[in-house]
């Protein structure tokens, strides 16, 4: 099943020409610099923007042929936009009035978002994080076919983000509603998205599974020090004596600092490129808890020539290593070369 978006639109100083095909359900992140057209895509999908040319097809239903109110698209904005004169409970129920019957249940949503204790309050008496959770709840209770979230966390400080991210992760895991998420944060992408669409100047530069796109050495994440592998992993076992947990990440065994999750639990990990060193042979005693055998897929020097990015295939996983160009020359790296990727357990982020 897919969500297909075809969009052409020209503003006086900007044009968008976008073709996106996404798997559904799942979370897709639209990512790119300010002004590249992310919100324009969202507005065209919701029908808020009457685009010059637009076709949006969700699982065979041509949404763009429908009136915006009939599209079944839920939208969550940066600032929540709750009705200030209504309690949280009435804000939530407002969404339900126009909704068709659907799988989203009031009690479950309240529980999922942790807002049960807020039902009698008005939005003015909520924190930013609480307000955003209510806004997400209201959008969900409309039983949307598709949920659009335009920088839902960007108005919040780090503490509030940490408060709400686990709820979004649960949304991702528990609800099977396809979601489009605009974000500037690679951390949010790594935590929440399955698919990543990278935009620049009104067009799509790359789209595909998050793990594939973030490890591509030819994209610009590296310049911003944001490059790294995102890998779906399964917990294999714990080693309490070493204080480490072993994960199976696409057939590659990776050690991380011990976490309290039962074996078989699934977690995503992110291995930043800056954490990964390379060697040609087994390095002997080292502080790297992980020594992963792989093969160089490709390498690229960044335009400012300050670093070389090396993409490595290891099992089903892709790793990315960020080296100085000098180190890459010393190793005489080239595609198809076998290498060892070295990184510490504490360098791996569990997201
Ligand atoms: N209604 C409009 N009229 C004229 N120009 C517009 C309009 N809406 C957006 N634009 C222009 O289109 C371009 C893309 O805007 P858009 O909001 O889609 O970018 P964005 O990637 O979402 O940016 P940001 O990350 O800053 O939110 C910008 O140059 C913006 O000025």
From TrEMBL:
Domain Mop: 285-351
Entry-linked InterPro entries: AAA+_ATPase, ABC_transporter-like_ATP-bd, ABC_transporter-like_CS, Mo/tungstate-bd_C_term_dom, ModC_ABC_ATP-bd, Molybdenum_import_ModC, Mop_domain, P-loop_NTPase
Pfam families on file: ABC_tran, TOBE
Domain ABC transporter positions: 5-226
Record GO terms (molecular function): ATP binding
PROSITE patterns: ABC_TRANSPORTER_1, ABC_TRANSPORTER_2, MOP
Superkingdom field: Bacteria
SMART domains named among the record's database cross-references: AAA (SM00382)
Keywords carried by this UniProt record: ATP-binding, Cell inner membrane, Cell membrane, Membrane, Molybdenum, Nucleotide-binding, Receptor, Translocase, Transport
Family (UniProt): Belongs to the ABC transporter superfamily.
NCBIfam families listed in its UniProt record: modC_ABC
Protein name (record): Molybdenum ABC transporter ATP-binding protein
Gene symbol of the encoding locus: modC
